[in-house]
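Friendly challenge for the regulars: who can give me the structure tokens for this chain first? No prize, just bragging rights.
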Amino acid sequence: MNIIEVEDLRKEFKSHSSRSGLQGAFRDLFTRNYKVLAAVDNISLTIKQGEMVGYIGENGAGKSTTIKMLTGILTPTSGSILVNGMNPHKEREQFVRSIGVVFGQRSQLWWDIAVQESFRLLKKVYRVSDEDYKNHMGHVIETLEIGPLLDKPVRKLSLGQRMRCELAAALIHNPPLLFLDEPTIGLDVLVKLKIRKFLKEINEQYKTTILLTTHDLTDIEALCERVILLDEGKIVYDGKLNQLQTNAVEGKQVEFQFLSELVAPPSTSPNVQWQQKNATTWLATVNGDEQMVSKVISEVVQKHPIKNVRINEISTEEIIRKIYEEGMAIS
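First reply, four minutes later:
Bragging rights claimed.
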């Protein structure tokens, strides 16, 4: 079952274009030139119930604009959107009860009142019964470890404490779909780990569908099997995270640590590029599949005494950087 269906979605914005010089500035007082910019450029995608999807791209790629259209904040210029079987713009009141939203830089909690009072207000907004609230939120509060924070005003919470409360607030009505826009921005490692663990739990227990946008790619690696990569408003990749690594990076990197100093590359194979890291450590970039990697390791081990061999995983961050810098086409 598809919980999100998007077809040929487009969002255009008008941008004022100033004329040059004093005469141009004078003319701008009476008539203005505009450019039409496509922040989201005819994208199509579907997301199934229970998926955890990473929606990634550089600043200005169109991620937040997409999320705002999917949540009904912005109206598309053209194209169609169905979320939870509803049009986010035409069925607004019913639609907002079926989603949860966490924006890392915006708060849905009232600043000067206790956290639990914000929760009670949201409970009434979403028309959640006392029994459902008690059963569901008891688990959420315990798992996110925010029980001691409920009596505190939001303004007295640290960033990490507030973000855990924001996440709990988005789940008061136990929505089937959760939008997370930079939910771990500025948080320390321990808080990030708690939030990731909690998201995995609600995904497994309630089959909550999660669409995550973030610049912290360790969040994507920890949570999402599927990623959608956006560039200049267009989808350049939509598929498995591990397949992105296979398609985007040619070759493997093997690190050899030798028992004694080596002044020359350990082998002369044409499929290997060598780089010396220090006196006893060399990095081999192998252009080929796993069999080629095994062949190179075997050849080196037979010729030189080895202290350690390690196959280095190339990080998702490095892959994305390479895609943008080199303009690589991913299929």
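The radius of gyration is 25 Å. The first strand starts at residue 2 and ends at 17. Your move, everyone else.
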